[in-house]
Amino acid sequence: MELFKNFSVRDWLLFSGNLCMFTTSLLYIAWWVAVFRPGASAARFISAALLIPAVLSGCAAILLFILGVRIQSGVRPVVPAGGILIAALALYVLLFAVSRYFFRRPVTSELFIMILWAAGELCALSALYTSGRFGIPEALSLGLLIFAATITGFVCYLRYYHLDGTTSFVDGLIPLAADAGVIVVFLVLHALA
Which of 44, 74, 83, 133 could disulfide-link to 128, CB 3.0 to 4.6 Å? Predict the structure, then answer.
């Protein structure tokens, strides 16, 4: 078993983007635990020391995904990145309305982050499938994992303000852990492809 076999520039950019996304997830989880764990009293500098690098790592991931997806492969993608981003925007508007008007949930940045994460992962997945790095089984498996993590995240997002104490803390932690788990699977499959 050989890791990173015949990795192209596109592969390295997308793999590095997912490494940055995984780093973002770990930092965000650490921030969540430090700030929202029942009884936690993290100082502002600890919160900032975790959240600022998380945001910077997330921005780096987005940049690396954009660079990797934009590399021309000579093959028309099955699902173009532009189509994924338009669908993500439409989904965000729909979920915004559902959460705000049907569930009376205050809309927070987590909804945007959740959809942005899914869109980025799907763009990377589409690029890797189009370039032949992933076959149908890998693409379907990762697509289903991304979908499941996003649905899980949205359900937890809707429930969060109706919960208290440890239950709300765990509810907020579940989507972060799910996304991190999906990224690990993505990284392993990509390294082995």
Answer: 133
